[in-house]
Write a structure and sequence with these properties.
- It is a single chain.
- By secondary structure, the protein is mostly helical.
- 78% of the residues lie in helices and 0% in strands.
- Helix 2 crosses helix 8, helix 6 runs antiparallel to helix 8 and helix 7 packs across helix 8.
- The chain is globular and about 55 Å long.
């Protein structure tokens, strides 16, 4: 129960909770794995719900009710792991670039907490990928999730790398700029 409380406190930007979760004696691998699985399942469930009309048109019951949902859940988990690994590596690179020690394993553990707010914006992100128009609520959810992730990542960098707050915010800003530039490169041009 204490680790669950630490995760919630970390989501509320508590530096003490992040430091406690980062300590080697805490051994939060089990909780990180559970959180990763739950996030992956929520990614898959959201994608499944957004594509439910298309899935209903599949005539074979085994595919419609078994294989297709399993593929969505598995791909959601893989998507979450790729996001977590990518964010960890970018946080590590930004930290090292600004003179930090790196500490890749500790960053990887804490990045699990940093991606939790992405659940808020999942429907909007998947709608964006599907090319459907976004409502104001979806745009608001993207904004809230990105700002929350930004602040959590900054606190993680501040605690793990022992940076001054401004340096941690600059490191995460560099990560976000990199993410935006990659998204701009791979996103299709408007028609």
């Amino acid at each position: 129960m204490k680790k669950i409380t630490l995760v919630f406190r970390s989501l509320l930007l508590d530096k003490g909770a992040i430091a406690e979760l980062s300590a080697p004696e805490t051994n939060s691998r089990g909780y990180n794995s559970i959180i990763s699985i739950l996030l992956g399942l929520s990614y898959g469930f959201t994608a499944l719900n957004l594509n439910s009309e298309l899935i209903k048109t599949i005539e074979t019951p085994i595919l419609r009710d078994g294989l297709i949902p399993a593929v969505f859940f598995f791909s959601g988990y893989i998507m979450m792991l790729l996001t977590k690994v990518g964010l960890t590596l970018l946080l590590w690179a930004a930290s090292r670039g600004l003179g930090g020690g790196g500490f890749l394993a500790i960053l990887y553990q804490n990045t699990t907490i940093a991606v939790i707010p992405s659940v808020i914006a999942l429907p909007a992100f998947i709608s964006l990928q599907a090319g459907t128009p976004l409502s104001m609520l979806m745009l608001f959810s993207i904004g809230v999730a990105l700002i929350w992730i930004y602040f959590i990542c900054a606190k993680i960098i501040e605690v793990v790398q022992q940076f001054a707050p401004w340096k941690a915010y600059v490191a995460v800003l560099l990560v976000f700029i990199f993410y935006i530039s990659i998204y701009y490169i791979i996103s299709p041009p408007p028609a």
